[in-house]
Amino acid sequence: MTSNLRQFPLFACAVGLLAVSWLVPVEAEQTAAPAQATLAQRIVHPNPNGYGPGRGSVHQGAGTMGFGTLLGRGALTPNFAFMHRGEIPVGSGIGHHFHLGADEMFVILNGEAQFTINGRTALVKGPVGVVCRAGNSHAIYNSSNEVLQWINFQVVVEPGLAASIDLGDDRVGATLDRVPTFITTRLDRTAFGAGGRGGRAGAAPAAASDVQRRRAGQPAIFGSPWAYVDHVLIPPGASTAPMTHETIAEAYYVMAGSGTVTVGSETAPIGKWDTIPVRLNDTSSFKNTGTEPLELLVYGVAKDMESKIALMTSGGRGRGGQ
C-alpha cells in the first residue's frame, strides 16, 4: 500500500483527509486463463443463473449487487487487469471511488443509469459505454425500474501500480446535469446509420465487404496501453478476413447474434453474451452463421505504449483489427 501511494503523492494527501478510504490493488483477485486451453475452453459463456445481489455493497455503493470475472489479469497483455460482468438491482449501485493508474469503461447493456464522473452526474441510456480515465473518479446508481446488465473492462498504466480509493458516497439523490460532462460512447446499431439496421432472414449471403466496423473509443481517451473500443456488425452469411494480432490483443463481447470464431486452426461456436479473448500473435476471424446480424464489442489492448503510439501516428486500425 505504501509503495503504491508514493507513485501518486497528490492522492496520498487525499487519503489522509477521507474518513473512510482504502486501496485495493486491481491484480489481487485476478488470474489469467491457462495458455494451453483450447479455443472452446477460452470462450466465456454467460452465467445461466445471472449474478444476483450476492457480492453485497460495492465501493460503498447503495444496496447490493453481484458480478463475476469474465477475463482475469493478464488474459490479453501484462497491462490487462480484468473484464467483469454483473447486474445492478433497482436502487443499488457502485459507490463513488477514484481509480489510480487504471483506465476503466463501464457498458450498460440495457435501460438507463445515473453515472458520475469526478462528482458530476447525468442519466445515460443503454447500450452505452462510459469512460473513467486513470486518475479520475466514478460511480453508478440504478434509479430505473429494471435490473441493469453491465460489463466493465480495466487496463492499468503500469502493472502492479493501480489501486482504488472509496469516497464513502453512494450518489443517491445526486443532482443531475442535463447532459453528461464526461466521455460516453453510443453502442446501439443506429450509430452505424441505415446500414446498421440488420438484414432480413432468407436474404442472399452477405459479402465480407458488408461487415461494418466503427471506432467507438479512440486511443487518446485512454492513458494506458488500451488502444481502442470498436463496434462491429457482421451480416448473416458474412465473415471477417483473418487477421494476425501482432501488437494489439483483443477481447470480443457478443452483444447479439450467433456465429463462429476461428483462432489459428481451431473454430468454435459463439452466441449472445459470450466473451472471446484473442491474444498477441493469434490469427482470428469471425463468421455469422445465424439469421440476424452478429454484433460484437471489441476491446483492443496494445502490448506496450510504443505499439499504441505507433497505431495513433499511423492513422490506421492496427494489426489487431479486422
What keywords describe this structure?
single chain, 322 residues, mainly beta, Jelly Rolls, 2 domains, six-stranded antiparallel sheet, five-stranded antiparallel sheet, disordered C terminus
Q: Could you explain the architecture of this structure?
A:
The protein is mainly β and 322 residues long. The protein folds into two domains: 2-186, Sandwich (Jelly Rolls), CATH 2.60.120.10; 189-314, Sandwich (Jelly Rolls), CATH 2.60.120.10. 9% of the residues lie in helices and 38% in strands. It has helices at residues 2-6, 9-17, 39-42, 305-314; strands at 66-71, 80-88, 93-100, 102-108, 112-117, 120-125, 128-132, 137-141, 148-156, 163-166, 184-186, 212-217, 226-234, 243-244, 248-256, 259-263, 266-270, 275-278, 283-288, 294-302. The strands form four sheets. A six-stranded antiparallel β-sheet has the order 1-2-9-4-7-11, with no helix packed on it. It has a five-stranded antiparallel β-sheet with strand order 6-5-8-3-10, with no helix packed on it. The radius of gyration is 19 Å and the shape is globular.
Task: Kindly summarize this structure in a few lines.
With 322 residues, the protein is mostly beta strands. It has four helices and 20 strands. It has a six-stranded antiparallel sheet with strand order 1-2-9-4-7-11, with no helix packed on it. It has a five-stranded antiparallel sheet with strand order 6-5-8-3-10, with no helix packed on it. Strands 12-13-20-15-18 form a five-stranded antiparallel sheet.
